[in-house]
Design a protein that fits this description.
The complex is a heterodimer of chains A (about 120) and B (about 525).
Chain A (H helix, E strand, L loop, with lengths): L2 E8 L3 H13 L3 E5 L5 H8 L1 E7 L7 H10 L8 E5 L4 H8 L3 E4 L4 H12 L1
Parallel strand pairs in A: 1-2, 1-3, 3-4, 4-5
Chain B lengths: L1 H10 L25 H14 L3 E6 L7 E4 L1 H7 L3 H4 L16 H11 L3 E8 L5 E12 L5 E10 L1 H41 L3 E5 L5 E4 L1 H6 L4 H4 L7 H4 L4 H10 L6 E10 L3 E11 L10 E7 L1 H38 L6 H31 L8 E4 H14 L5 E5 L5 E4 L1 H17 L6 E9 L2 E7 L7 H4 L10 H6 L6 H11 L4 E5 L5 E8 L5
Helix pairs in contact in B: 11-12, 12-17, 13-14, 14-17
The chains are: A alpha/beta (about 120), B alpha+beta (about 525).
């Protein structure tokens, strides 16, 4: 059963993870973070999050690779994914890989919370 | 003596006087009879004196062949009076100038009793040199013995001087030609040493694309020898490796109608030396003459440069990504702080937090702009074209800015009613930039107006402010990279790349961006985007 209050963060940058955890926890969400992209599938299986905030440029597995794998798997293909990236071409890559939404870094917190809410409903 | 002279003249047929209308002439000739002799003689002497040619007689039977007669013209010619002439040998006119080879000719003629014409240097009484063209003719007696010589003399100094002048001029001319030839040769060597030194490959082709010459740099860059290159057809060089479609297009189709062609990019994979990216300048010689229709091609090898530019782009991409990541964290944390501000905190604290947010955004823009400039410079700006509703995009962008601006009221007038195929994020960037400028540079005013319209097959966006305006001399330059208007820089710091980026983006979409402004009267920035075709 998906937990609509649990948001999974996948980013290789500790600062981003820290900040997002503060923001999300402060808004009543339960934030779980994955820094090592290889652990993402196992974590999803374990915590069954309501939404994934996914970075693109990460070592070993990039965000779009993860996204494609998720979309190819019937158990995860419905998981709402918002790609967060500082890359200029991020939006195009995210859309092509099957993201539900995209936020360019640095983003506005209010907008992010709004989008999270939209996709959870 | 008198009779002798008359006879001599008669026999030598010097009928100068024939032209005179004389009563004593019978059938046009003197009869020199006893009755008319005196009159005839007087006429003859008058005629001789009227002649403009100097005439003398010398007596060969007297010692040293002295002059026994001279006419007036001779006196005038040499400046001596008759009294100073009679009795002298002709050579007195040569003064000290005795070594002339012409004298030998005269001497021989006298000895052999022959006619002769010589040009001798003579000297007037006052010492002035004159050239005397002397016709000397012997007068022989019944026994064939030479009794007299007649000397007919003309002062040909002017002619001689003209001839000498001519010779002199010819010498000068020859000298000049030789100097010119030397200097031409020198400048040719000079030019060719320049051509050999430039760090760019140069080829000269004849109108049939045969290689006439190449410089050292060409040989080095393309690893060929002069022998293998010069005199060969360009397309045949190195087993046809120069038979490049883009090059053929340039030489055969573009150059004949667009002369010269500059910065023509050709990419080609050469056997042995690999892929080369070349920038070509081609120029067909239009001068009349031996160089007509020759083709000069300068080739700049930009393979490495392009590679470095791409690496720089990559580097900036990574750098900006890396810079933006911690910036995201800072921005997020500041926003959290803003929301967590306890009610008892002072207004000043809140203002400081707000300002921190503003400067984070500015830093973010600077990072984005740096990356944009680098990409635009290298032509690596990528357009992600999609169809979107232009009016709605403008409205959304304006709303976004309006929500962050208390100082100004942004009003939209008109609409385009058009869907447009363009890179929406880029267009938003341009609108944002123009609107921010309008607000930034009109701090003492309250409104900014956006005009939307459709003009022919273009849509037009304008933003009008009532601010400080832009001086005429600055209006062109504000679109240059890193240009900042002097007095503006003091009040509004910036990098001076925003408008440059905007113009490049609009240009890449096939539109134009321009400004109309008057100093102190506000500015209107406008851009157009084409509607009819996909960009």
């Amino acid at each position: 059963m998906t937990d609509n209050r649990t948001i999974l963060i996948c980013d290789d940058d500790e600062g981003i993870i820290d900040m997002l955890e503060i923001v999300l926890e402060g808004n009543g969400y339960h934030a779980i973070s994955v820094k090592n992209s290889l652990e993402i599938f196992e974590t999803i299986k374990r915590v069954n999050p309501g939404l994934l905030l996914l970075d693109l440029w990460m070592p070993v597995l990039s965000g779009d690779q993860i996204l494609k794998t998720l979309r190819d798997n019937p158990q995860t293909n419905a998981l709402p994914v918002i790609v967060i990236s500082a890359s200029r071409d991020g939006q195009q890559i995210a859309v092509n890989a099957g993201a539900d939404d995209f936020m360019a870094k640095p983003f506005d917190m209010e907008n992010l919370l709004l989008k999270i809410q939209q996709h959870l409903n | 003596m008198v009779i002798r002279l008359a006879r001599i003249l008669y026999r030598k047929k010097i009928f100068i006087f024939k032209i005179l209308d004389l009563n004593s002439l019978t059938n046009g000739e003197f009869n020199l009879s006893n009755e008319s002799f005196k009159e005839d003689f007087s006429l003859l002497t008058q005629a001789l004196d009227a002649a403009i040619t100097g005439i003398i007689l010398t007596d060969n039977n007297l010692p040293d062949n002295p002059i026994i007669y001279c006419n007036k013209a001779f006196e005038l010619m040499c400046g001596y009076s008759r009294a100073e002439i009679i009795g002298h040998n002709c050579r007195f006119l040569q003064k000290e100038d005795r070594g002339q080879p012409q004298r030998q000719m005269l001497r021989e003629a006298i000895q052999n009793g022959k006619d002769c014409i010589v040009n001798v240097r003579n000297y007037k009484k006052d010492g002035t040199l004159f050239y005397n063209e002397l016709y000397m003719s012997p007068v022989k007696g019944e026994n064939g013995k030479v009794n007299y010589f007649i000397g007919v003399q003309n002062d040909v100094t002017k002619r001689k001087n003209a001839e000498l002048e001519l010779l002199h001029q010819r010498d000068i001319m020859e000298q000049r030609i030789s100097e010119r030839t030397t200097s031409l040769k020198e400048s040719e060597d000079y030019l060719s040493s320049i051509v050999q030194t430039v760090r760019e490959s140069l080829i000269v082709l004849d109108p049939g694309f045969k290689v006439l010459s190449v410089n050292d740099h060409f040989l080095k860059t393309f690893k060929v020898t002069k022998v293998d290159t010069e005199g060969k057809l360009l397309y045949d060089l190195g087993n046809g490796q120069w038979d490049i479609p883009a090059l053929r297009e340039l030489l055969e189709n573009i150059l004949p109608s667009n002369n010269p062609v500059e910065e023509f990019e050709v990419e080609h994979d050469f056997p042995y030396i690999g892929k080369k990216l070349m920038l070509l300048n081609a120029h067909r010689v239009e001068l009349e003459g031996q160089y007509k229709d020759r083709i000069l091609i300068a080739i700049e090898d930009i393979t490495e440069r392009r590679e470095i530019e791409n690496r720089k782009d990559d580097f900036l991409s990574i750098a900006s990504h890396e810079l933006k990541t911690p910036l995201t964290t800072i921005k997020g944390l500041v926003q959290v702080m803003q929301r967590m501000v306890p009610p008892e905190v002072s207004e000043k604290f809140k203002t400081i937090l707000d300002k921190t947010g503003v400067y984070i955004d500015r830093l973010n823009n600077l990072i984005a702009e740096l990356l944009d400039v680098s990409r635009i410079q290298t032509g690596n700006i990528e357009l992600h074209k999609e169809t979107f509703n232009f009016d709605r995009t403008v409205q959304d962008t304006v709303d976004g800015i309006q929500s962050a601006t208390q100082s100004h009221n942004i009003l939209i007038k008109g609409n385009t009613g058009e869907e447009v195929i363009a890179d929406e994020s880029h267009i938003i960037q341009v609108i944002n930039n123009l609107l921010s400028n309008a607000i930034k540079y009109s701090p003492d005013h309250k409104s900014v107006i956006v005009y939307l319209s459709r003009v022919s097959n273009f849509l037009k966006f304008s933003v009008k402010d009532e601010g400080m305006g832009i001086k005429m001399e600055d209006q062109k330059k504000i679109f240059d990279r890193f240009y900042r208007v002097g007095d503006v820089q003091q009040r509004f710091p910036g990098m001076g790349i925003g408008l440059y980026i905007c113009e490049q983006i609009i240009k890449n979409h096939g539109g134009t961006l321009w400004v109309e402004s008057e100093h102190g009267q506000g500015s209107t920035f406008s851009f157009t985007l084409p509607l009819s075709k996909a960009i």
